[in-house]
Amino acid sequence: MEMRFVSTGSYLPEQVVDNEFLSQIVDTSDEWISSRTGIRQRRVTIGEGTACMAAKAAAKAIARADIDPMDIDIIIVATMSPDNCLPNTACEVQAEVGAMNAVCFDLSAACSGFVYALNTAYSFIKAGIYKTALVIGSEVLSKMLDWNDRSTCVLFGDGAGAMIVQASETGIFESVLGSDGTRKDALTCASRYIRNPLVSKENTPSGEDTLDYVKMEGQEVFKFVVKTIPLTIQQVIEKAGCTQEDIRYYVLHQANQRILESVAKKLKEPIEKFPMNLDKYGNTSAASIPILLDKMNKKNMLNRGDKIILSGFGGGLTWGTTLIEW
Ligand code: UT7
After folding, report:
1. How close is the Cα of 151 to the center of ligand 1, in Å?
2. How many CB atoms lie within 10 A of CB 197?
3. Helix residue ranges per DSSP H, the chain
4. Residue 285 alpha carbon, nearest atom of ligand 1
5. Who is most buried in 28, 46, 66, 162, counting CB within 10 A?
6. What pLDDT was estimated at residue 129?
7. d(CA 297, CA 307)
8. Chain centroid to CA 225: how far?
9. 32 and 133 in contact (C-beta within 8 Å)?
């Protein structure tokens, strides 16, 4: 059994935060941010959480697929910024969209999360276990940022993207996924500390100190991405028995325009094959690929039979490149 791509949906919070605004709160400038990253604006939520945005994106994908939510067998939400430890985001989406026959869980793989989630859905479908999957990437990164740290707060944004996929007789889906935990310190954000009656209070941060924020060794991540991602793209194209000429688009995680340009150069591909929207939305981690696919879909850029590379990379370190046939 193979998998087909039925529909997409996305949701971005209304509040736009531009580089000018950020230059008033930290020592930065529109010139620095746009020339080093390509980012000009991002959306920041002032109320809607990860599950709420995920459900809104999902509702659009379900409406466009014209399916009964009761036919959805599985919901996977890729996120590193859930609203709660419990319940998981996918269960909240399930209740909101009325997909009461679905099995629901979240998946955490930072900016590779959506590609990993899509591969998980594919594995269930390929094995004949499920027929219809709702796969979502949703992030509220604004709550994980130190808004006094100019090296991170200018990079990220909030948003959600969703996709309905279904079992199909035909289709192409080839992947190269990988992780390197030895480089776990390159991108971090601690969650809760170990705290119980057996742990001495002196060793346990309290109050504000328990809050931790995203920290990134930007150059290390940059170098890892531009070295690893072109190789995985070449590997996946070879696995699928295709050539680069067969690829219509390279839909990469929207972290930095210079990363995309560098990957394009290494592959000797025109930059036009690398759609971007990071100028408007910044880096939305697991949500960036499904948001971009939805925007492309709405502009009728995706045609049946198009071969598209999806590639996510980030904390862990993790990476995942998949060749799909739309
Ligand atoms: O989504 C997960 C995957 N993440 C990525 O793929 C991100 C990969 N990394 C990057 O995109 C880039 O490394 C960054 C955009 C994060 C940083 O760009 P960079 O060209 O690597 O800059 P840098 O960190 O080397 O910093 C250069 C200078 C430093 O000043 P000095 O030491 O040269 O005086 C920084 O302090 O720029 C300074 N700087 C800033 N200046 C103005 C850092 N952030 C800012 C800022 N505004 N916002």
Report:
1. 6
2. 6
3. 19-25, 30-37, 50-65, 89-97, 113-126, 150-153, 218-239, 257-267, 278-281, 288-298
4. 1
5. 162
6. 98
7. 14
8. 15
9. no
CA quadruple 87, 88, 89, 91: dihedral sign: negative
Residue 16 phi/psi, 5-degree rounding, is: -95, 130
pLDDT at position 35 over 60? yes
Q: Which residue has the higher pLDDT, 203 or 27?
A: 27
Task: Tell me how long the chain is.
Answer: 326
Is 28 near ligand 1, meaning CB less than 6 Å away? yes
Match 């699928």 to its residue by tokens.
Answer: 240
Write the residue with the smallest CA distance to atom 45 of ligand 1. 151
pLDDT in tens, 251-281: 999 999 999 999 999 999 999 999 999 999 9
- CATH superfamily ID and name for 2-170: Thiolase/Chalcone synthase (3.40.47.10)
Where does the chain hold its CATH 3.40.47.10 domain(s)? 2-170, 174-181+214-325
Out of 36, 139, 257, give the residue to mutate to test ligand 1, the one with the largest number of ligand atoms within 8 Å of its CB: 36
User: Nearest Cα to 79, choosing from 142, 11, 18, 138?
Assistant: 138
Return d(Cα 277, Cα 10) in angstroms, integer: 13
* 300 flagged as catalytic: no
Q: How much is the average pLDDT of 88-115?
A: 98
Ligand 1 centre and the CA of 257: distance in Å? 13
Q: Which CATH code is given to the segment(s) 174-181+214-325?
A: 3.40.47.10
pLDDT in tens, 129-145: 999 999 999 999 999 99
pLDDT single digits (tens) 181-219: 999 999 999 988 788 888 877 766 665 555 789 999 999
Active site residue 189: no
Q: Is 37 in the pocket of ligand 1 (CB under 6 A)?
A: yes
Angle at 155 between CA 154 and CA 157, to 5 degrees: 100
